[in-house]
Design brief:
The structure holds 2 protein chains of 2 kinds.
Chain A (H helix, E strand, L loop, with lengths): L6 H7 L20 E11 L6 E7 L5 E7 L3 H6 L12 E8 L6 E9 L4 E3 L3
Parallel strand pairs in A: 3-5
Antiparallel strand pairs in A: 1-2, 1-4, 2-3, 4-5, 5-6
Chain B lengths: L1 H21 L12 E3 L29 H16 L24 E6 L3 E6 L4 E6 L18 E7 L2 E7 L22 E10 L3 E10 L7 E9 L40 H4 L4
Parallel strand pairs in B: 4-5
Antiparallel strand pairs in B: 1-2, 1-9, 2-3, 3-4, 5-6, 6-7, 7-8, 8-9
Classes of the chains: A mainly beta, B alpha+beta.
Chain lengths: ~120, ~270
């Protein structure tokens, strides 16, 4: 694992707490961390939560669109996240607490872009 | 000699009068800037545990509930622990109300004017108006329950003291005080004291009385930190892209996929006991 290269990732870790103040998080498997590698399709920088949409190849080589839910745009925006943080087409590795029922979705934990930039928590 | 004295008196009176004229009507405290609540979005700090502090079950202090309301609260807590408490505030569309307005994520502004104080929460957004112009609560015949009730207050030095009543009852099913399912009756009456304590911390102490739900006054304190100068407040629109609608029948929070359709099944629909 690469060392943290700037204070920004530490700052962004702060947003992890309270990310789901709007609703229950009972659908997520909080004890499980799943790592997905794929391509950013869209970053929905919207209320009440932001969503990172990622195209990921499954075991059969088929493309599956994952939905990763993150904090509110307001909280994230005050901490340096922008709509441009996840550009469409960017290669990315994402860590998530997946849905308990196996749905292609989860709670966003953190991401690493191809240039090593870390967004969110990557401990 | 006499004329000189008269001139001096007139001069003194004019100086004093002009001084009063230039002074503001009231020396109001500086509550400017943007503020954020510390701690989890629960009224009972002991229920906070785990990331976020608002969704993980934990031990709690016991509000001095009557047996009837203790049973209601335990039932709500059990639903919360299963993640199926139908919290009306998570369904988008209704105000957080009072006292929940002091229990929200995101940021706040506390706007002080000479006749009113406005509590503005980014989340919601919500507004609580506190009249400080000397008026009293309306007569019983002229008030009806609302989400924020009726608040009248006054200043005791730099402390705002206000009295709130005429609140919606939790019995109506459209209000809860926090996400553990804390509920009050239509007899709720709250006296709130707000002031800035050492360290630039806004302390909001609420003394909650409720002749139907509580056997004794319950004091809840929330604290808010002033954010760095220049911090901005943004729009909040719960229905803008709400991909987590709640089934009012089961309380389950669904997840909407990128195609606009529900992705998951509720535990009841799947036949399991979540």
């Amino acid at each position: 694992m690469k060392p943290v290269r700037s204070p920004l990732p530490w700052l962004l870790m702060l947003v992890a707490g309270g990310a789901f103040a709007h609703h229950s998080d009972a659908m997520f498997e909080r004890a499980k961390v799943l790592e997905l590698t794929g391509t950013i399709k869209e970053f929905q920088f919207t209320n009440p939560h932001t969503w990172v949409q990622v195209e990921v190849k499954n075991d059969k080589g088929e493309s599956v669109e994952w939905s990763l839910e993150w904090g509110s745009p307001n909280q994230l925006g005050r901490q340096g996240i922008r709509p441009s943080t996840f550009p469409a087409g960017a290669a990315v590795t994402i860590r998530t607490n997946p849905m308990k029922d196996g749905t292609a979705a989860g709670a966003f934990i953190g991401a690493k872009l191809a240039d090593g930039t870390i967004i969110g928590s990557w401990e | 000699m006499t004329k000189t004295l008269h001139r001096r008196w007139r001069m003194a009176v004019m100086l004093v009068a002009s001084g009063f004229y230039c002074l503001p009507a009231l020396a109001l405290p500086d509550w400017s800037g943007v503020w954020a609540m510390t701690g989890g979005t629960v009224f009972d700090a002991a229920t906070r545990s785990g990331p976020g502090g608002s969704t993980t079950p934990g031990l709690r202090q016991r509000p001095p509930y009557t047996a009837e309301y203790e049973a209601k609260y335990l039932a709500n807590m059990a639903l919360r622990d299963k993640g199926v408490l139908p919290d009306p505030n998570s369904m988008c569309g209704i105000p957080a109300g009072f006292p929940r307005i002091f229990n929200l994520p995101d940021v706040y502004e506390f706007a002080v004017t000479d006749k009113q104080v406005w509590i503005l929460s980014e989340n919601g957004p919500n507004v609580l108006r506190i009249y400080t112009d000397g008026r009293a609560h309306p007569p019983v015949a002229d008030r009806w329950p609302t989400h924020t009730g009726d608040s009248v207050g006054h200043w005791e030095g730099d402390t705002l003291v206000f009295d709130t009543l005429s609140l919606h009852s939790s019995e109506s099913g459209n209000t809860m005080i926090d996400r553990t399912g804390l509920v009050l009756s239509d007899a709720a009456h709250v006296v709130t004291r707000m002031h800035i304590a050492e360290g630039d911390v806004m302390v909001v102490e609420m003394t909650i009385e409720d002749a139907k739900a509580l056997t004794a006054p319950w004091v809840v304190t929330k604290r808010f930190n002033r954010q760095p100068a220049g911090t901005r407040v943004y729009d909040y629109a719960c229905n803008e892209n709400n991909r987590n609608p709640i089934d009012p029948a089961t309380g389950w929070t669904y997840t909407i996929g990128p195609d606009g359709k529900i992705m998951d099944q509720s535990p009841s629909a799947a036949g399991s006991e979540e």
